[in-house]
Amino acid sequence: MWSNRWLFVLAAAGSAVGLGNIWKFPYIAGENGGGAFVLLYLLCVAFVGIPIMMAEVLIGREGRHSPINTMRTLTQQHHRNRLWVTIGWMGVVAGFLILSYYVVIAGWALHYIWQMAEGTFVGATGELAEATFDAFLADPWQLVLWQTLFMVATVWIISHGVIKGLERAIRWFMPLLFVLLMVLLGYAVNSDGFDAGWDFMFRFDWSALDQGSVLIAMGQAFFTLSLGMGAIMAYGAYLPSDTSLTGTVVVIALLDTLVAIAAGLAIFPIVFSNGLDAGEGPGLMFVTIPLAFGQMPFGVLFGTLFFVLVSFAAITSAISISEPALAYLVEQYNAKRSRVAVSLGVIAWILGIGSVLSFNHWSDVHIVGTLTFFDFVDYVSQNIMLPLGGVLIALFAAFALPKTVVGNQLGLRHPAVAVVWKLLCGVVAPVSVIFVFAVTVGLDELVLGLLGAGG
User: Fold this and answer.
1) pLDDT tens, 107-140?
2) Is the distance from CB of 305 to CB of 184 less than 8 angstroms?
3) Which of 152, 206, 247, 261 makes a 20 to 30 Å CA pair with 296?
4) Can you say whether the dihedral through the CA atoms of 86, 102, 257, 325 is positive or negative?
């Protein structure tokens, strides 16, 4: 069990706060109407993200096992079809696949702590910053080195269990993450580009919103909360019975959103104050931002702190997506946790070599269509398995579990509240995720046509 409610909040928030919060949310907010998109996103979190997260936590706490065995226990206990156990398997496999390449990308952040501390980007040009990143990606031995260091850190933490491993890491990493974020935010507030950064994220440009913005907001609301991969279900299994599940999930969602907004307000003023382009993805994280820090006073210090922040966000996410597979193997084989953690880490590390090579020697090797090994693993896990898992979790909680179980877990005292929750969890959230899923598998015109017809 978690020692208290707030450690669960920090752990779940740590799972939700990852690399995507640092760059993806601020960028898509700025590109889709700023404050108008933020408002739309908050509505999607409220009506899609929070209901599914509540469903996943309540299933985990009711089952009190790893996701696979939780689903097995609940289907047997309530005489439901055994196919529902697929939810657990899908989450565990998806989380393991994501872990294999997540540690590769997180290793880049570790490497850039060293790069920033050395002063590599002091006075650097844009060409040098881009060439530095390209040279790093072209060197598989460098990528493997930092991948290995990050994987070792992850395995060391998860091998020590809930109290000595997960809780101890969360007690340190999450407060430090918040402190570092506030330091960088304070630095950005005093920069010349703060007004431009604020305007980029919060201008209410309703004309920039379209059907595509709605789908982006729904997708971000789902993925940012780490739903569908079993991590939240596994963490929910350790949640004490007397803890308010509903209130706790709302706090986690708000904390995740605040971190994403604060990250944007910390990053974009620094970018704009140096007259740089707020590029998307790795280009922003590993080219534009190092270049920006390299051109400002105390840039070495604050640039180093920034990548320490990114690494903290990455490690808390990595330990959460490791937990479902680890917990299942420990339960199933009554094995020592440390031994399973090492074995799991080694297998994920070997699989991650494929992602490493996708950026250099295997860059022209395509698994399906134009997808490299890294692209394929990312696509299957994030764009197919997680949405399907999220939909099934919501449907199982809303329709397969008895009303008394759901009511007791969520503390639903009034029948009208129970009806509203069932409508959100059983209809609104699954339908929304299915729309996002349809877009990711190439049914864009059909989905947008349906949205247009409905409007």
Assistant:
1) 999 999 999 999 999 988 878 888 999 999 999 9
2) yes
3) 261
4) positive
